[in-house]
Write the structure tokens for this entry.
Amino acid sequence: MKKRNETKAEVVLTGDRTTGKLHLGHYIGSLKNRVQMQHQYESFVMLADVQALTTHFNSPDQLRHHVRQITLDYLAAGIRPEKCTIFIQSLIPEIAELTVFYSMFVTVNTLRHNPTIKSEAKEKGYKDLYYGFLGYPISQAADITFCKATLVPVGEDQLPHIEQTRRIVRRFNQLYKPILTMPRALVGEVPRLVGLDGKAKMSKSLGNAIALDATFAQVQESLKGAVTDPARIRKSSPGYPEICPVFSYHQAFAAESADEIAQGCRFAKLGCVECKERVARRINELLDPMRATRAEYDARPSLVDDILQTGTAKARSVAKRTMQEVRDAMEISYF
Ligand code: SF4
């Protein structure tokens, strides 16, 4: 029988903090790519409920709901449980164990100077840092190394975390035995999708997103309210599509007609109302099959439970194997 990693050369880990439903920004930025990668690589997708607690520790009652909703988002978008191991982070205690072991040789100053931690702490207005929040990069190293991931698709802002994981792997392998696999970051080429307000990237907490489970009418309504080129007050004024969020949706969801849209806008032949209706139609065409798949799974909750339990059991058995290797390397296998 073939062992894992002998069948597919690369192991990919992706995941999402379970803080809310996924939206179109997630789809364009990562989900679409994951759906393709599941056919090429051994793929793990983590529902990061522990990492959700780094910022949502006061509302754990929400996690259960979000885990379920995000799983439905995955399945609807085309993640296939037979191709991809979908698992729940908190049910893999070895990840927590690895986090503790790695934290012995990572200094507080290293974490404090991590640019992503610094900017997120500033954004959240933290005067003092929660231990779990500060240790996020260590916990992420444990996620990546338990399954010996070789590729980790990330956005630019997550690069410092991957670099931290690489330092942990290097240090562990030097200190004990070279058993951990060095991961590589796979930086997405797709620019982040801007939100409906045109001010920041699409984000549920900013209220500027279109959820993957949005209804037909919700998509139309959201687009109606989207910010456009602010200088274009009437159809007869030429517009600047390059500064218009709606145009960036055309580029993301209807690339083949984006040039025609840009021309129509620049030469004042296309009005914003029609432009928005056109992209809403394209987004609804994309979401329609997802809605159908989602409804099928939603109607079978025990099947979704089964998918999560099977994926988590598989991830756990991989984690146990790695943990044993880690203990052996550190010479703390007692019996
Ligand atoms: S026509 Fe389209 S691209 Fe041009 S400003 Fe209006 S919404 Fe934006």
